[in-house]
Amino acid sequence: MDYIKRDKNKKLKEDLIKILIFLLVFLIFILGYIVYQDIQISNENISNENIEIKRTYQTIDEMQEKNKTVTEMISDLNNCVVGISKIENKGNSIFSNENITNLGLGTGVIVEKSGYILTNAHVSGEKYSKCYVTLVDGKTYEGQVVWSNVDIDMSIVKINQKNLQEAKLGNSDNIKVGETVYAIGNPIGYEFRRTVTAGIISALNRTIKFEEENKEIYMEDLIQTDATINPGNSGGPLINIDGEVIGINGVKITSAEGISFAIPINSVKSVIDSFKNNGKFDEPSLGVFAFDNSVLGYINENLRFTEGIYIESINKNSAAEIAGLKKGDIILTIDDKVLKRMCDLRCYIYTKKPGDKVILKVQRNYREIEIEATLKRKI
After folding, report:
1. Which domains does the chain have, with CATH numbers?
2. Which residue from 167, 97, 108 is spatially nearest to 143, judged by alpha carbons?
């Protein structure tokens, strides 16, 4: 009996040892699996960190490439920017650090390789007048004002030079608030010629009122920007990130910082194209001074209209007077083109020629009538 009892105890011990061994092996397996998973997770984290580092390096590279592109773009456009003065300097360049005020220094941009330069009317002077243009190489040439419109403060100057580098023109109808823009000009003299400032488009279709020679002046459809400009920047280009001219800098609000205005390039594209293709521009004219509802507060607070442009005055013997238009008429359409701003009317008329007929849909005393007008040549 003792023999059987000892045999059973021995078997129990062996079974217990087997169980312990199994549990030990199982525990080792579990620990090994846990360690393996930790290693895999660590490797994965390291891999992800490398990806993030790589992505960071790519972002820096992209930024550097973008900065390089902007730098090259501005450097290239600088060749198209000129200095303009009403007084011929005795030196080799009007970019002189002497008598800057007397020189009346301003800026312009070459828009056609045979010597057509776009600037402000207040920089160049009236049509047929003379001014002096200095190119990027420092040489000064006599220029003639071949077109000027004081209502929109724009003009074109011609110099007798060929194979000039011309600026690329953009589409000012497509720009949006918040876009990055750059202004190039000659703010205060020789040391600061072709100064570049950056900003954003702050607002569109702005209307401003100011007085000049005891006369109230209204400028409409302006681009507002916070790019810094000074008096010498007048006539210089406002460009987008693609290096395209979208406006011409012209007005700065001196009573506030970071508020400047530019005239949209689309308002004169037809004029530029005419000079490019024909060497001249016979300006057609309807002969009205009109404004849209954005100017209501300036003119008459009691006026209310949502569409069209309101005729404030009509030039004597103009196409408008001959056609029978009257003060107080609201022009709704021209040749079925809906008018929302004075710029819409002006830009459309600039695509026409003197002698062309246009059909105007006019609201008069709450009635709509059609009037045919024959455009006259503006002298």
Report:
1. 78-158 (2.40.10.10), 180-272 (2.40.10.10), 282-377 (2.30.42.10)
2. 108
